[in-house]
Amino acid sequence: MSIKRILAVATFALASGMTSSAFAHAKLQSSDPRTGSTLASAPKQVRLKFNEALEASFSKITLAGADNKDIPVTAVAVDKDDPSVMMAQLPALPAGEYRIQWSAMTHDSHKMKGEIPFTVK
Q1: Among 43, 33, 23, 28, residue whose Cα is nearest residue 104
Q2: Could you give the CA distance from residue 79 to residue 101 in angstroms, rounded to a whole number?
Q3: Domains of the chain (ranges plus CATH)?
Q4: What is the pTM of this model?
Q5: Could you give the residue ranges of the DSSP H alpha helices within 23-92?
Q6: Which is nearest to 84 in space by CA: 29, 42, 9?
Q7: Which of 18, 55, 105, 119 is the most exposed place for a label (fewest CB within 10 A)?
Q8: What is the DSSP code (8-state) at residue 34?
């Protein structure tokens, strides 16, 4: 194999590796409550699972009712045993429509945010 061919193969392999990591983005994998769910009883906590570890200082969860008013949540934290999980305790919620709003930053400084609507019967 010629030097040019070896360099071309090595360059391609290096570029392919850089491209795949450059396009790898953190994302929400699951939530409890689930997006769009209708629950028979109000949840006591929110649990969000991501595909990467989070930076606790730059990650948060808020809750809003159908009237867009903020509802206080407590104990928002990244799980010490699994840093890809963020949780928050919810107050007692009456029947109605709600939106969990979250923002998070991963260890590699990737920022993301989203919203999870759910209904309590």
Answers
A1: 28
A2: 18
A3: 26-120 (2.60.40.1220)
A4: 0.79
A5: none
A6: 29
A7: 18
A8: P
